[in-house]
Amino acid sequence: MTGIYLDHAATTPMLPAVRDVMFSCMTGGFGNASSLHGFGRRAKATIEDARATIAEAIGCSPREIIFTSGGTESDNLALFGAAALAQGKRRIVTTAIEHHAVLHSCAQLERQGFEVRYIPVHKTGQLQWEALERAIDQDTLLVSVMYGNNEVGTLQPIARIAELARQRNILFHVDAVQALGYCDIDLSALPVDLMSFSAHKLGGPQGVGALYCSSRVKLGAQMFGGGQERKRRAGTENVAGIAGFAAAVAQSLQFREQRQQNARLLRQMMQDELARSLPEHAFVVNGHPDEAERLPHILNVSFPGISTETMLMRLDLEGIAAASGSACSSGALETSHVLLAMGLEPEVAGSAIRFSFGDGNTEREIIAAARTVATIFKSLRNKS
Ligand SMILES: Cc1ncc(COP(=O)(O)O)c(C=O)c1O
How far is the CA of 299 from the centre of ligand 1 (A)? Predict the structure, then answer.
């Protein structure tokens, strides 16, 4: 495929080291990790090596890692697994801007009789602290807040929430799917109970992820079958996927700073070039204005007067892949719940485009993409 890929928050190209590890697993080590023979033992050893690599990278014990089929399953396992052992507590607290893997799980838990409180956010996308403090009480089982938002990149005050939750004896789940690979996650210093990860956001394969589950926490299994993953997640493990995930984590640890800097540079370059190529007030940047309070690889921009769908289609015709950020698995775009929760006017929310950068992007691509956006903008404006 040729073109300019600016949708790394949706998925990333697989790293060559990941591909190599997976290829050798699939061709040389095809055993079932539950089998007692040599093939099985080798597969098991591959999984345990991967578990140790990932655990070391995020500062936890290997026993605290549960491999899953990705971020969605990890979020589901965290929420439904905690709810299964609620011991009478009926309240869950989350934010209005979580990924649908959390929000739709919460909606299902509401149907099962739980009360869910959705904390509003400021215009920057950061949660309203006082509202969080007010929302939690002795009936609260779990607080679930994402590390960094997948649409606008805003980071949440995870360490501060973790302290609060621990003081009040409430479980704390963090969806860190977009953060792994860009943020320094050290669970030995962070009192979080559950944390979700996904391999394909950092150069690993699609369809594999992990849930960190602190040894303090008991989780009700959501899949029933074999005794894999210490009876917390039944099913034959995706050995090649897990090995690929660990290879991606190892690389991201080695190159994290470089990757952060590169993404920051590309993001700024895109924003500057848009400003140079477009008339004043033609676009607004959504999210947190402070670099320290956002993920480096996501730039969310609105072009009021031009719908998200129109801009995305025109960009696609020019070979540029960007996104709306909101769920569009049905093919139809909905206005982003994240941008609406941030209080953006419907016209601003309905014209937002998410550009997300990755290792393979070059400065030339970014300049070309920004200029193409400007050309499309001007041609559409001239028509209206
Ligand atoms: C913040 C966040 N959580 C969860 C998910 C779901 O992860 P997966 O695609 O691995 O199911 C995503 C994917 O975009 C995400 O961005």
Answer: 17
Catalytic hit among 25, 106, 213, 328: 328
The CATH T-level fold of domain 16-250 is Aspartate Aminotransferase; domain 2 (3.40.640)
Q: What is the chain's length? A: 384
CATH hierarchy code of domain 4-11+256-383:
3.90.1150.10
Mapping DSSP to helix (H, G, I), strand (E, B) and coil, where does residue 140 land? Answer: strand
For 168-223, what is each residue's pLDDT tens digit?
999 999 999 999 999 999 999 999 999 999 999 999 999 999 999 999 999 999 99
Residue 101 in contact with ligand 1 by CB distance below 6 A: yes
- Token code pair at residue 61: 């014990």
Quick check: helix, strand or coil at residue 64? helix
pLDDT in tens, 106-156: 999 999 999 999 999 999 999 999 999 999 999 999 999 999 999 999 999
- Please give the distance, rounded to the nearest whole angstrom, from the Cα atom of residue 12 to the centre of ligand 1: 12
Pocket of ligand 1 contains residue 372 by CB under 6 Å: no
241 lines ligand 1 (CB under 6 A): no
- What are residue 115's DSSP bridge partners? 91
Residue 60 bears catalytic tag: no
Is there a contact between 358 and 8 (Cβ–Cβ < 8 Å)? yes
